[in-house]
Design brief:
Keywords: Signal. The chain has two domains: about 220 residues, Periplasmic binding protein-like II (D-Maltodextrin-Binding Protein, domain 2); about 190 residues, D-Maltodextrin-Binding Protein, domain 2, CATH 3.40.190. With about 425 residues, the protein is an alpha/beta fold. The two termini are about 20 Å apart. Helix content is about 45%, strand content about 15%. The chain has 19 helices and eleven strands. Strands 1, 2, 3, 6, 7, 8, 9, 10 and 11 form a nine-stranded mixed beta sheet that branches. A two-stranded antiparallel sheet has the order 4-5. α9 packs across α10 and α10 packs across α19.
Length: about 425
């Protein structure tokens, strides 16, 4: 059976992939027994461990330790990026050549578990280490465990302490009214008071939605919940900030480039815990001089978006025991700590709270202390289709004349249609 790339991606998003992929021999049955000896040649697909340092960490240190424990398993690594990951997975499903072990993002488990592409894991693995409950939530579908967390990437607000002091601002904003007022006060001399747009617009709006007391979907993933006032108010705040002149969508910075708080072009910005590592490399004086602070966004409640990378097992691995062993190993404290240090991410294990890495990285430390306020994107089997439509649907309300209410309503219609096709 032949499927081109476009039709496969459409099938995954529309919820019709199960029948199509069954005809291609991919992902339609449960995993074989993982009770036998861990042996054989398997493949790991990963969007993290970037660059030469990441490759060395994974292949020499992490997989080096795995080989010592499981000498009869050979691991081939397929490196990709998050921008290409969904396409690689769906293409592998269509060809019946899905890698044995896959790393994927928060929100991705329900779509692929619903299609029987990934294997259910033993519930005992959820208590093998001291995972936070919030950290494990994105690893489940229909109450069952399908993945284990490796690293988290939280969305927090970072600010310039020196800018606050110069403007006489004595405390961080506790709600949106204060945030808007402080942003106005800090905007001066070509500097914007707040940059919410240098992270992905989807994740930015979600963070504000959660802080406003909103939710994306119902617990069963079948009903859209963001179309009410909570979601509209979150988008409207962006429009208000731009109208005030204290935020500018055109001045967002690219990932890896010196951020607006680093260059002093913004006094506050939405960012990730990884910014600490970037600043340490690019502007260490900001850390040495204690010019950076951070806080969790809040309005009706504090909320910190929890993204990150999970590890799971393909349902049709020909070497399920070896694949299961690698999934478990990549989620051990030593493996997690290495990945977190390399990326500047948050290790989702209480076992690692007292490590030097956590204590030194103030943004990671803040995130770990606020995991009770963490919220995850996704939550529906239709997520892979919906997630790609959030940014292009909401963007016209920020850069154009479309109202926040109309943009949210349109996104709601698209989401409801995607869920209806599942």
């Amino acid at each position: 059976m032949e499927l081109n790339r476009r039709s496969v991606l459409a099938a995954i998003g529309a919820g019709t992939a199960a029948a199509a992929l069954a005809g291609c021999g991919g992902g339609a049955s449960s995993a074989g027994s993982a009770d036998g000896p861990a042996e054989g040649e398997i493949t790991l697909l990963t969007p993290i461990y970037e660059g030469a340092d990441g490759k060395t960490l994974l292949e020499k240190k992490i997989l080096g330790g795995f080989r010592k424990k499981y000498p009869d398993v050979k691991v081939n690594v397929d490196y990709t990026t998050y921008a290409q990951l969904n396409e690689k997975i769906t293409t592998g499903l269509a060809g019946g050549l899905l890698p044995d072990v896959l790393m994927m993002g928060v929100g991705w488990i329900p779509p692929f578990a619903a299609k029987k592409a990934i294997a259910q894991l033993p519930e005992t693995l959820a208590s093998a280490h001291d995972y936070e409950k919030r950290v494990l939530e994105p690893s489940r579908y229909d109450g069952k465990l399908y993945a284990l967390p490796v690293v988290l990437d939280t969305r927090i607000v970072v600010y310039r302490k020196d800018h606050f002091a110069e403007a006489g601002v004595r405390k961080t904003p506790a709600n949106w009214s204060e945030l808007r007022a402080v942003a106005k006060q800090l905007t001066r001399g070509g500097r914007v008071g707040f940059d919410p747009f240098s992270i992905d617009l989807r994740q930015c709006w979600e963070t504000f939605l959660f802080a406003n007391g909103g939710e994306l979907f119902s617990a069963d993933g079948k009903k859209v919940l963001f179309t009410g006032a909570r979601g509209v108010e979150a988008l409207q705040l962006f429009k208000d900030l731009v109208k005030d002149g204290s935020a500018d969508y055109a001045r967002k910075t690219d990932a890896g480039a010196p951020s607006n708080v680093q260059t002093g072009k913004a006094s506050m910005m939405m960012t990730t815990s990884a910014l600490w590592v970037q600043v340490k490399e690019q502007n260490p004086d900001l850390i040495e001089d204690d010019k950076l602070g951070s806080f969790v966004l809040a309005n009706r409640r504090p909320a910190m978006l929890q993204g990150g990378t999970l590890v799971t097992q393909a349902a049709r691995s020909t070497h399920p025991a070896a694949a299961r062993a690698l999934v478990e190993y990549l989620a051990t404290p030593d493996s997690i700590l290495g990945a977190a240090e390399q990326r500047g991410s948050v290790p989702g294990l209480r076992d690692l709270d007292d490590t030097g890495y956590v204590k030194e990285n103030q943004f990671v430390d803040l995130s770990l202390k606020n995991l009770q306020h963490a919220f995850s994107e996704g939550g529906t089997a239709a997520w892979m289709e919906i997630r790609e439509k959030i940014k292009p649907t909401l963007e016209p309300a920020i850069v154009g004349d479309q109202s926040a209410k109309d943009a949210i309503a349109e996104l709601g219609r698209l989401a409801e249609a995607a869920i209806g096709r599942m």
